[in-house]
């Protein structure tokens, strides 16, 4: 699917199709299913655009050699967590745990590493640093 189409906004059926592979993977590996009927297309469109911008920033930061502890990186993660909070309960520690999970999950690791080699590990290290800093 073209990025321009995705951010022009998908409808509920298009989101169901876009999430099909991930949903099948989650069902097979974890016995979990995304409820396509519960998808709010407007919220999904907004979240997808924010997530894409966040991941592009993280990939660029890695490629440009920014430390995973750089304040701009940590600030971007904080902003991303704030966006995630619109649809789920999550804090820096939860985001760090999610990032560690992505290291072990084939689907998510491939998705992140496909954007930029090393991105999964960079994100995990940065998230762990932020979580540790916020618990001090």
Automatic annotation (TrEMBL):
Top-rank taxon: Bacteria
Name assigned to this protein: Uncharacterized protein
């Amino acid at each position: 699917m073209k990025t321009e189409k995705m951010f022009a906004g998908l409808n509920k059926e298009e989101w169901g199709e876009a999430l099909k592979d991930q949903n099948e993977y989650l069902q097979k590996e974890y016995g979990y299913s995304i409820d396509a009927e519960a998808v709010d297309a407007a919220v999904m469109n907004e979240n997808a655009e924010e997530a894409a911008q966040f991941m592009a920033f993280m990939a660029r930061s890695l490629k440009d050699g920014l430390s995973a502890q750089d304040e701009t990186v940590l600030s971007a993660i904080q902003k991303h967590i704030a966006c995630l909070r619109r649809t789920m309960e999550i804090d820096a520690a939860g985001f760090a745990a999610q990032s560690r999970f992505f290291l072990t999950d084939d689907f998510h690791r491939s998705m992140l590493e496909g954007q930029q080699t090393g991105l999964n590990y960079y994100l995990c290290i940065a998230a762990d640093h932020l979580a540790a800093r916020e618990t001090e």
